[in-house]
Design a protein that fits this description.
The protein is mainly α. The chain is built from 6 helices and no strands. It has a single domain, classed as Globins (Globin-like). It has helices at 5-18, 22-36, 49-65, 74-86, 91-109, 115-137. The longest helix has 23 residues, at 115-137. It binds protoporphyrin IX containing FE.
């Protein structure tokens, strides 16, 4: 589903608030993700945390940048999705990850955050996750 222009504006505006601190956002995200879901720590290889954070940050920036034209990301997200499938990442994990990301974004966006901004981010992240999941679930996202 394509994001509406209002959602895209909310996304870009809120992103501009946190852009300069984005590596702190990514750090906080991983800390909170492993605090809430220690059961997933075993999936992640020890020792390449910095590289992974940079790649994850790049993937998220792209989700924001291309929110209104997700077809541009389809090939790279599908490839990423197949890699995640091979690593044992299940479809249900994505919702848990997105919940953590939205809560961390709320903290960093502070007074710029509200229900509509949350909905816009949720929409963009879900669209990205769906493309990743479809790449290894043969079209089923449930
Ligand atoms: C929108 C959702 C997600 C995005 C955009 C994303 C993005 C990325 C990127 C860009 C990488 C680096 C790939 C590479 O090494 O070339 C990565 C690695 C990884 N991701 Fe994700 N990811 C998402 C969801 C998830 C979820 C839900 C899990 C599991 C709970 C997960 C687990 C992993 C693991 C285990 C790695 C490998 C890290 C390592 O080697 O230590 N990802 N992810």
């Amino acid at each position: 589903m394509l994001l509406g222009s209002n959602e895209e504006r909310l996304l870009q505006n809120s992103f501009s608030v946190i852009e300069d601190n984005f590596s702190d956002v990514v750090d906080a995200f991983y800390e909170e993700f492993f605090r809430r879901h220690p059961e997933y720590a075993g999936l992640f290889k020890k020792g390449n945390a910095d590289a992974r954070k940079k790649q994850m940050a790049r993937a998220l920036v792209n989700v924001v940048k291309y929110a209104s034209e997700p077809q541009k990301l389809r090939t790279s997200l599908a490839r990423l999705g197949r890699q995640h499938g091979q690593m044992g990442v299940k479809a249900v994990y994505y919702n848990q990850m997105i919940e953590v990301m939205l809560d961390v974004l709320a903290v960093f966006c502070g007074r710029y955050w509200n229900e509509q901004v949350r909905a816009a981010w949720h929409h963009a992240l879900l669209d990205g996750a769906k493309i990743m999941i479809m790449a290894y679930r043969g079209g089923k996202t449930g």
